[in-house]
Amino acid sequence: MSTPRERAREQTMRDILRLGREHLAAVGPAQLSLRAIARDLGIVSSAIYRYVASRDELLTLLIVDAYDELGDAVDEAIARAGAEPREQFFAAGRAVRRWALTEPARYALVFGTPVPGYEAPGERTTEPGTRVIVALLAILERAARAGVLEPRPYEVDGALAPDLAVIREEYALDLSDAALVAATVVWTGLFGAVSFEVFGQYGDGTIRAAEALFDAQLDVLAQAAGLPRR
């Protein structure tokens, strides 16, 4: 059981993250200031360093927080989608888009332009940052086990095979090289489509039926992954 001091610290950390998200949306990551957050928190600026050591530490906390919230949204969507892999795939993709459109500043933090002078610590950000692709790979593997995954035949270049073998071993996958190549297309295609919409890359008025376009893109990606319409 936690002590009152521990509970107070946990609450302060939650408040710092909440204010960090608000400031991120208001001023962007490059202009985040611990002093400004301390002011809004109602404490002297020196006191905040007992909780967060630096601006870079705050950025790391916000990145992990964003990745985890996105990962939770995708996991919950997949769980609600039922057992059919193609429906799970669509649920996951729509969850990514929905979260990104709801949280554009946080999406930009993790998938947009790198923050000048900041380098994310891989030992803290890699696992949460790969939750979505791991969830997508799990869908493809379930489809393969059920005999419904039909990736297009593809002869993998010999130079690429060792990289795919590392991925297969790291994530304990039983997917062919062709299926793994298709998974990278899905990964980059999904986030490319979402990023184009979030960052306004289509241009004003070019796409009015954005949701319909995204579903069409998901359909193309699903077929590329080996999850055809049935």
TrEMBL record:
Keywords: DNA-binding, Transcription, Transcription regulation
InterPro entries hit by this protein: Homeodomain-like_sf, HTH-type_TetR-like_transc_reg, HTH_TetR, MT1864/Rv1816-like_C, Tet_transcr_reg_TetR-rel_C_sf
UniProt superkingdom: Bacteria
GO molecular function (one): transcription cis-regulatory region binding
Residues covered by the HTH tetR-type domain: 10-70
UniProt entry tagged with the keyword Transcription: yes
DNA-binding segment(s): 33-52
Gene3D superfamilies on file: Tetracycline Repressor, domain 2
Annotated protein name in UniProt: TetR/AcrR family transcriptional regulator
UniProt source species: Aeromicrobium phragmitis
